[in-house]
Amino acid sequence: MKEIGSEFWIEKDSITKNDISIIISSVLDGILNIGHDQLLLFSGRTAIDYVLEDISKPIRAVYMPSYCCESMLQPFIDRNIKIHFYSVIPDDSGIKYIIDYKKDFDIFFATSYFGYSSSAMDPVIDILKERDVIIIEDITHRLLSEPNHCIKSDYLIASLRKWFPLPSGGLAVKMNEHFIMKDNLTSPPAKLINKKINAMKQKAEYMAYESYEDEFAQELKKSFLAAFSEFNSGIKQSYKNFSIDSVSQNLLAEINVVDVKKKRCENAQYLHRRLRESKYIKFLFKEVDFEKDCPLFVPIMVESSVRESLRNYLISNNIFCPVHWPI
């Protein structure tokens, strides 16, 4: 059985040269024709940083979701912006947000989770737009859903690397005006990008093996996992003011987004259909509208008594599922 999960890979012959205008046409106009101004950047973290650079008013505090990764916080930490957290918790309806509307903050950071419309933060944004606060919406998880953003947000950011096999890729959108500066962007370090590309090629070679138990295959896996880890460590140190790299631009132009969306929805529907009657597994989102929703993940809640045994069983069958909700 082919390995499922973990990092994307790219075939050696998939790196071709295309004009940047093709990318803008095929991706931004086709899927992300939103807002007034859009930029393809190095990563989601780069997009957050670039948006903060664009905001002219003083920023003292941001209101962030309690469920987020460290990389999302770093641009605020680098600017000594105080971070408050609103609670994000699972409940019978899927996800519940506990918002203190009286709290003092300048930026509200909205995140709608996993690509399910029932988790969309649009109602919260509607309320907060009555205040003089800036709304930054992370649309990574709902990128291929409809709608994929709230029209009342001031800025949108997304990590394209979560959806597509790209060495780099982030998106920043300014909803109602142009970004103040665009000429300060530079290409990301070639050494860092090449490390990611080589890791993705090595994984493609690994995926082509008939037996993953082969000694060379195991050494190959160690090599690309180490390279992926080094790349991820590298972007923690250096991420500001980088555009998307040229290889990712070219790869992005070749991606059939409609096909990606179709396959994601088919896979999610299959899981929902086959696991519905399970005694030990429950879906975080029980009601799904696959006419609108394109899940990035299918989150399941597992009984504690079988959680680790299930995960180990999946791993033994080359299925690597992330543990996505903290204890």
Gist?
This protein is α/β, with parallel strands linked by helices. The chain has helices spanning 20-29, 44-54, 70-78, 122-128, 190-207, 215-237, 246-254, 257-275, 307-316; strands at residues 4-5, 37-41, 61-65, 82-91, 94-98, 107-111, 134-138, 155-159, 170-174, 281-283, 300-302, 319-320. The protein contains nine helices and twelve strands.
Uncertain runs: 17-25
- Looking at the structure, what is the overall shape? globular
Class inferred from helices and paired strands:
alpha/beta
Q: Spell the H/E element sequence.
A: EHEHEHEEEHEEEHHHHEEHE
Q: Identify the strand order in the major beta sheet.
A: 2-9-8-7-6-3-4-5
Question: How would you describe this structure to a colleague?
Answer:
The chain is of the alpha/beta class and 327 residues long. Helix content is 35%, strand content 17%. It contains nine helices and twelve strands. The chain has helices at 20-29, 44-54, 70-78, 122-128, 190-207, 215-237, 246-254, 257-275, 307-316; strands spanning 4-5, 37-41, 61-65, 82-91, 94-98, 107-111, 134-138, 155-159, 170-174, 281-283, 300-302, 319-320. The strands form three sheets. An eight-stranded mixed beta sheet has the order 2-9-8-7-6-3-4-5. Helix 1 crosses helix 7 and helix 5 runs antiparallel to helix 6 (215-237).
